[in-house]
Amino acid sequence: MSTDTDTDTDTCTVMPAADGTPITTRTGTGTGATARTGTASATVSGTAPASGSAAKTRSAPGRAPARPAPAAAFHSVGAVTLVLLGLVAIGAVIHEPVLIPPLAASAALVHSAPTLPLSQPRSVVVGHLLAAAAGYTTLAVAGASAWAAAVAAGVTLALTHLARTPHSPACATAVVVVLQSPAPARFVPLLFGATVVLVLMEFAVSRIRKGAPRYPAYWW
User: What is the dihedral of CA 63, 64, 66, 71, to 10 degrees?
Assistant: First the structure.
């Protein structure tokens, strides 16, 4: 006849995890006459712990990007300003308004996000040309009005997506064409030349600062 004597100790601890989920930890220790000794612990929660931690760490919610370093901020501001001043200088030489508001938006977009599809040369050049085509077509059909300008911007957005040349500043070019009615024989060549110069200058300034993202990610 055998005798089995057990002494059990059961401890239950409830602790809140970092995300507020209750964590229950049970620890049991048993000893007996048969020289049986064991220690067991279990963690009970809604999410299994990783690497022995009491709770799984959840990702923080999205936040605004960190403030850039002074050198990077100076390079960004200086590069965009240099590109725009270059367009102004060309316009002064040929006595034509080369710098139009949509190109300022293009320069800022290209330098701030040089790897996005919206910033690539294909999107910048073709996007603005499609916008001019949409603007002049809308102008011929509906005349110069704010209503027609809004329609031209929407048509431009559709055309640029269909042509795989998304470029949001181009919508503003269509608005400029409808509201200001520039002569196409003068405006379109200037627009084309300005977009090419913008792309080439961004290509150059992206290589001035060591470690800066290289532009473009692709040409066509």
Answer: 170
Query: Residue with structure tokens 């989920």?
Result: 21
pLDDT value, residue 205: 86
The distance of Cα 153 from the centroid of its chain, to the nearest Å, equals: 22
Query: Which residue(s) pair with 30 in the sheet?
Result: 8, 38
Q: Give the C-alpha separation, 99 to 107, whole Å.
A: 11
Give the position of tokens 């709770």. Answer: 55
> What is the Cβ-side half-sphere exposure of residue 88, based on CA atoms within 13 angstroms?
8
**Distance of alpha carbon 101 from its chain centroid, rounded?**
22
Cα–Cα separations (whole angstroms), residue 99 to 23, 38, 88, 132, 163: 63, 80, 6, 15, 25
User: Mean pLDDT across the stretch 124-149?
Assistant: 97
By the 8 A CB rule, do 180 and 78 touch? no
Amino acid identity at 24: T
- Which residue's structure tokens are 């067991």? 40
Name the band, by pLDDT with cuts 50, 70 and 90, for residue 168.
very high
pLDDT digits (tens, 9 = 90+) for 93-103: 988 888 899 99
pLDDT at 33 over 90: no
| The pLDDT of residue 38 is above 70 | no
CA pair distance 118, 49, nearest whole angstrom: 42
Q: What's the per-residue H, E or C state across 117-139? A: HHHCHHHHHHHHHHHHHHHHHHH
Gap between the Cα atoms of 172 and 53, Å rounded = 53
